[in-house]
Each structure stands twice: as structure tokens, then as C-alpha cells.
Amino acid sequence: MAWNRKHLLDIESLTADEIVTVLDTARAFKAVGERAIKKVPALRGKTVVNLFVEPSTRTRISFELAEQRLSADIINFTAEASSLKKGETLKDTARNLEALNADFIVMRHSASGAAHFLSRVLNAHVVNAGDGAHEHPTQALLDAFTIRARKGKIAGLNVTILGDILYSRVARSDIWALTKLGAQVTLCGPSTLVPKTFEQMGCRVVHNIDDAIRDADIINLLRIQHERQRKTMFPSINEYTQLFGLNKARLAKTKPDALIMHPGPVNRGVEIDSDIADSSRSLILEQVTNGLAVRMAVLFLVNGGKGPQELTGN
Amino acid sequence: MPESTVILDAPAIQRALARIAHEIAERNEVGAEIVLIGIPVGGDHLALRLSKLLAEIWRQPVPVGILDVSMHRDDLDQRAAPKVFPTVIPFDVTGKTVVLVDDVLFSGRTTRAAMDALNDFGRPKKIQLAVLVDRGHRELPIKADFVGKNVPTAREEKISLGLTENGVERDEVVLLKK
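The joint structure predicted for all components is written out below.
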């Protein structure tokens, strides 16, 4: 078995084998979601804290449902209603949660590296649900799962990630996961949001959308993250749509079997035409379904992991 | 290399399965609603072989399913996560006689997990247990209904089953001594 990690903090440190282990495990958990009884007792008696210091709807709901389907007990903790607002440090908040015998902490935080920090100060299993502009590992795993399920493989595919790469943790995690699994990743968007430095991660960087999507097997669209933007990255949303929005005319010039993905939330009419988002080539809702299975698999796997010391033991 | 002894060779495995099939047929009436459910890894292939043998005896097909029990194990936080296989049960188990098929019966914990997992798919009329090898050392009050071979073992020894379905050259059950 290729998994001995106690936490899931990022994709960068995972091996291709470990990623494949998550995907294989998730396949079994996806089948659980298709049964009449969708619940298994794998985490019975365990307590999971969902520590969402930065707002999130779909990731939090997906994790919550995954935890419920694994029979865990759940505490939800959001920034608005928490003692973090009263000036408590993250470390103290987390230590208090651990004093209640929390076994897992699933955390979303606006600071890059927050999950790594928690994993160093706590005994609980830590799962990164997105940290700043750094990584969003479960999103990358569900994207890889969705691509593999639809295309039968990942190695050798051309995957184009389009949009706000600079501020996107999804893009970073996707790049790590897909390149480790042998895909050729192309990044495209305004040069202010897609700097050439990303070539160092093994990607092709292109600033013309037609060049970027012509040979793509997968087109992964990212939302313009207004909350992380400085004002001057591009002149206007309208111009962005003109230059980089995916519309019917552009899609017509791609491979006929190219599929479209989006981690959500979708800004219809900005990065993607409404019709395309709802078309049979869109995997957007499949990604949501698969996300649940992937998060169940991740919690199941880290539960058995005791940390790096075990890697040599077996 | 640990010392190893072959306990069952290919013909012996096939004979043991034929005997188990006849015992299942004897214990259950013709046309009784019998289904076989194998537990991976090993039990799933054995269930398929038993189904063919039973179909010859009864002259009617015997349905086969695969039940992964790893999500129902009681030691999940004490070990690295086990490999999980998709469960495939293409029939309703409610009201049927389910014969669970496993390769080796040891502590009985896998069987317990299997009965727990099976609950999520319905309420069988009866559950029976068929194993190729019973090696003793039970930790739970569980007993097999059909046994290919009883093998006295020491707790630290290992039993490994090789089947051609898994890509090995020939069927073989081997006892590995420490």
C-alpha cells in the first residue's frame, strides 16, 4: 500500500504512486455513494473539526458530507462566529479544539502554509482544504479523478488551465498533480496573471487563448478571484471576457472530444459562456460528485497513516 | 527467505473447491436462492470458480458478487489504510442465502466486517461461510460452514494463496514460516 501519511497538506510533496492510491481508493468510495445506504463505519467514534477560517461553501459542504458518510462526529467552525475574531491566535484555537480530543482538523485558511503550521503543532490529522494562494490538494485530486474517469488515463493528455493562475491555489495543486501523473499542462491568461515563471513548474505558458486550447484534451477554467485581486491586473472584466472567455466560436476550434472543467463557483458570462457550462462537454457537476468520493478517500487514508517514520517500517 | 511449504497444489485446490461445491449443494436445496459473495483479494476469484462448479451441479446459473470489507474493519486506526476494492453486488441479497467466500479464515475479523458490510445491502435469509483454508487462531465466535482444508499454524506464520487469475503461473497455497 502506497500511503503512510498522517496529513494531506499539499500535492507538491506527494509521489505519483501516492496520488494514484488516492484515486484508486476514491473509486471504491464513489461506489458507496451510489448505494441505497451511503454510509460506512470507517471513522466511527472519530471527531472531525472543519476549521474554515476563510469562507467556503462547496468545499465545506463536500467535506462535511464526506465525514458524515464515514460516520465521524463533526464540529463546524467558521471565522465569522469564532474566537479568532476576538484576537485568539490560530495555534490557540487549534489547541483548544484538540483539547476536546479532535482527531482530524480540516482547514481552509487565507494564509499560505497555515495547514503545514497546524500539522507541526498538533497531534491530530490535518487535511488542507485550501491555504491562501498556495494549494488546494483535494481539488487537484478530484480533478485528476474526473479526468482519469472520463479519459481513461492522464499520462500523455494535454490539459490547459485558463484564467487567474497567479492567485489560484487550485492551479498550483492541479499543476503538481497533473505533471506528476504525466500530463502536459498549458497555462493561459493575461500575462499579469500568468507570468512566465510558471514554466519552472514544467508547464507551457501561452497568452493567446486559441493557441492554448487548440490541442487540449481538457480545458480547466478558473474563476477570476476578485477577493485576491489587486485592482490593476487587467483593465476590465469585459476585456477579460473578450480576450480569454470560453465561447462557442472558440470551442468550435478545439478537438471535438475536448472536455471542460471548472472548480466553481462559475461566473457565467465572464470566463465561460452559459451554454457551454451546461453542455454535454462540461464536467462541472461530475467534479462535485467526484469531490465527495475523493474527500472520503483522503480522510480514510490519512486515518491509517502514522507519519513518515512508518515509511521505513514496513 | 522464510521457509515455505506448499499445503495445497493446483489439483488439490480444485478438488477442495469441488468438494465445497457439493457440500453447498447438499446443505441447500436445488433452486434455493443461493448467491455467492467473495471477499477480495482471493475470495472473489474463488467465488467465481465455485459458482461455475455449482452451476454444473444444479444446471442453473449461480450469481456472484464481490464485497469489499475494508471500510468496515475494526483496526483502521491501528494500521496503514488497507487497499480498497470496489464492491459489486449486482443483485438484491434480501431473502437470499448468501455464501460468503474467503481464502483464509484466521482471526474471524474479516468475516465479522463482511457480515457488517453485507447489512448495508439488505437482509439475507441466511449467511454461510466457505473458506479454502482454516488456519485457526479465532478471536471472535465465528465458524466456517464449508472448509477446503484445516491447517494448524503458528500465529506468526503466514499463508499465501496464489491463483492464476492474479497472474501467477499456477494455483498454490503456501505456508510461510518465520
